[in-house]
Amino acid sequence: MINQLPVEFVGKFGFLKDGYDMDFKFTSRQSDLSDIFTALPPSYAKFVKNTEVNGTGEIQVGLTGQYIASKNKHPDFTFSMKARNGYISNNHTPSPVRDLYLDMNMKVPNLDPDSLVFSIDSLHFRIDKDYFNSKFSVNGIKSPEIFARVNTEIDLEKWNRAFGVKAVDLKGRYALHLLAQGKYSTGVKKHGLRHVDTVITSIPKFSLKSSFRDGYIKYGNVPEAVKNITFDLDASCPDNNVKNFTLQLANLNATALTNYLKGYFKMSNTSGLAMDGALQARFRLDDLKQNPLPYSYQKPELWWQSLRKSTADDFKVSPVTAISKEEAEKLF
Questions:
Q1: What's the pLDDT at 292?
Q2: pTM of this prediction?
């Protein structure tokens, strides 16, 4: 037993002429999910205090094979975890997490990190009519082969209450739809005789759409919240060539006290790097009296607008903005 988690341990260890042979297996089958949480370190277990957890789970950990240093031979490490019919409710929230389903597997052959095989074959849960579905896998570290699929439409306030997150208060309607598949790799590109750059040679092809409405973020030790957060994000790359990457961030907005940020940004690399963006921001330093700055000031106000259209040839030129040099110097 580890706290309330029932476990089985089977192992053997043998001596070889030039190393060791081992086979260790740690298993907990058809356990209550609540018992699994009791086995977490105290620093993590505190996050589920006052939380009702139901469902069943299974954990398996293995370390099997020979260790022979002279042959660079190491045992294989395996880990798997399953959860079924999961239910999580913090302080009897009216909208608990239901139908939690998880299949997670990891293998590190020969204890070689670059041989890592990690997959979340399925992660699913729902909160009322909201949902989260995902599948993820990665093979390797240096040039990983990646697959990711995420679909969610969720009320962050309900999620925040169900899991009992106390460090930050979240509200708003968030959506994410992501599909990515392919290899991420880098290579060396030489310029002249001595100059060498590391460049991206391949990325997973992907499509990402995300949106946020009526967003609200407040950290526990901060007196004021960031409110009215909205954005629409659309990014994609139809193949593994990073030059075909496009991104569009629209309807960006956020407010805090009398301060605000709003604008948009577009970037395309299909015909050479091109960007188009506009940003409006207002930042009043006298709104920060709750956290005084380390120097004196007299209620300065920064109201900045910028509009920028550029290509790769413009990077040596400073962006054109609507704030003058004189106005900027008044702030410092």
A1: 45
A2: 0.82
